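Entry: DUF1845 domain-containing protein
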Amino acid sequence: MATNPQARATAKDYLDNYDGPISQLNTTFGSPVIKQIYKRETPIFSRNALFVTFFARLIFGDTTVDPLEDALNAKIAGTSKKFEYKIIQAQTLMRENDLSDEDKCQNNLPVEFNVTITSPAYRKFILLMIKADALLTYYDTLWMNGLVKTSDYNTMRYEVKKDLRGVVASVRNTWIGLQKRVQQDKLDKLHDVTGSAEEGKVSATPDATIATSDKPAKVKKAATSPAVEAQSDLLTQEPAAAEAA
């Protein structure tokens, strides 16, 4: 799943202008797999998760959004448990071969990141990435000590990458679905306003309406909360296709 650079820039622009609560989380990633995912996916994940778990509630209400947020949290929790199980498996294989955590490999070029957390879901995803980075370190150790074949090692690394991107895709698809509903609601409101205006013309001046029926009616935009409208505009700058796999 490749992410369009323009999509990442659009998401980062939104976060740069986000006016709301944040917290900071400092972490170091060693695996090249995790560093790549962090740089490519987290700006968009942060933006999408914030909309799904917070701003969408202002538009659709808790009844609609609660199940979506629960599904996202369940996806992250399930992936986290899978990584924990894999770590235990790797530790067991190491012990069987007289290796301990002190024998673990270290990446040659670790990078420290200061992560700006904007939602509970985003914090959970960063913690998931930390766990994935630890798992990949165990895989590196198994491979370096000749306990797994290179082909199996590559497959194991790919599985971790696929699981993380599955979480990213889950929140992205939810965001896209909600954005489509936002646009459909706007079209429905426009249709209602247009329909009401046309009905008023017919009832008031039927002859004039028939004579000028080929001229488009001027439509007054439906009233919308300025705060919600501003957030919606920022959140819909990027076409959904730009984030497609």
